[in-house]
Amino acid sequence: MSENKVVYGLQNVHIAFRDYTEVGTQPIWKTPVAIAGAVKFSPQAQGDSNTFYADNSAYFVVTANNGYQAELEMALIPDAILQEMMGWSVDDNGMLVEEADATPKEFALLGQVQGDQKSRRFVYYSCTAQRPSKEHNTKGENLDPATDTLSLTIVPVDIAGKKITKGTLELNATNATTYNAFFNSVYKPIFE
Fold first, then answer.
1. Do the domain assignments include residue 105?
2. 190 lies in a domain?
């Protein structure tokens, strides 16, 4: 099968909240929930590199992987997702209430980008969101929909004795079952 030359087209965004009810050695997530209306996802790598010089040249270079800072822009993030993600409440009349002392919940972010040859699915395992930014404008000559943007902090998590930040998966001759079930649960890498 040919390799992709480019990827484009964000879709199939899912959120899977971390499940702390089951205590074990490996992290567990709840069933992923699809969120329609993906606009943009832009992770920026975090971590510095350090160069040690000896013998008049770069003798040793090390780079720290501290995860990512990211922005996730969606057409609209459902109130039920925001409620659980941010630790907010819903009152007796159905109003979503932002609580100043609420603690955001950790979640995995899953999604898919298209490629010129095949699609690529991804998961970022340990995400925490800040309150979404919103912009409300009056309707003018053109109708421009407003979007919700979440700022995310994504950090490594321990899976099978390795610090894992993200994973990407493309369909190949041996992984069809895993690829097709990718959004049914949070896939954890298998190391043998």
1. yes
2. no
- 14 in any annotated domain: yes
Please report whether residue 2 resides in a domain: no
Count of domains for the chain: 1
Q: Of 121, 57, 132, 64, nearest to 96 (Cα)?
A: 132
CA dihedral sign, ordered 99, 67, 160, 177: positive
Give the residue numbers spanning the domain of 42: 7-135+145-180
Q: Looking at the whole model, is its pTM more than 0.70?
A: yes
Q: Beta-carbon neighbour count of residue 190 at 10 Å? A: 8
Among 128, 183, 178, 187, residue whose Cα is nearest residue 160: 187
pLDDT tens digit at each of 192 positions of the chain = 468 888 889 999 999 999 988 777 789 999 999 999 999 999 999 988 888 899 999 899 888 888 999 999 999 999 999 999 999 999 999 999 999 999 999 999 999 999 888 899 999 999 999 998 888 888 888 888 889 999 999 999 999 889 999 999 999 989 999 999 999 999 999 887
Integer angstrom CA distances of residue 155 from 69, 128, 189: 9, 9, 16
